[in-house]
Design brief:
By secondary structure, the protein is of the alpha+beta class. It has helices spanning 5-25, 37-41, 43-48, 59-65, 80-87; strands at 31-36, 52-56, 74-79.
Length: 91
């Protein structure tokens, strides 16, 4: 099913909060990595959530994992510390 932008952002924010609890309980997780066409198209939005955009993925990776995608695909990451600082509620 398709969802609207407002619902999508709400779910994204709730997901980051849930991930913060998981990461907080597992000291072996050093951060998050995200790869998508959405990052390329909405770079500023992802940066506002604490992601650092590293740019386009390699042609090899695109062929292997995103061969169906015609749009640019970018990678990003967020450190463990940033995730916990921003999204761990009731610390």
């Amino acid at each position: 099913r398709r969802i609207g932008i407002k619902e999508g952002i709400y779910l994204f924010e709730r997901g980051l909060e849930e991930l913060a609890y998981i990461v907080n309980d597992d000291s072996g997780i050093n951060g998050l990595t995200a790869i998508s066409w959405i990052i390329a198209k909405h770079r500023r939005l992802l940066e506002s959530y604490g992601f650092i955009i590293t740019g386009g993925i390699s042609e090899e990776m695109k062929l292997r994992y995103f061969d169906y995608e015609n749009r640019p695909v970018y990678a990003s990451y967020m450190t463990r510390e940033e995730l916990l600082r921003r999204y761990l509620k009731n610390k």
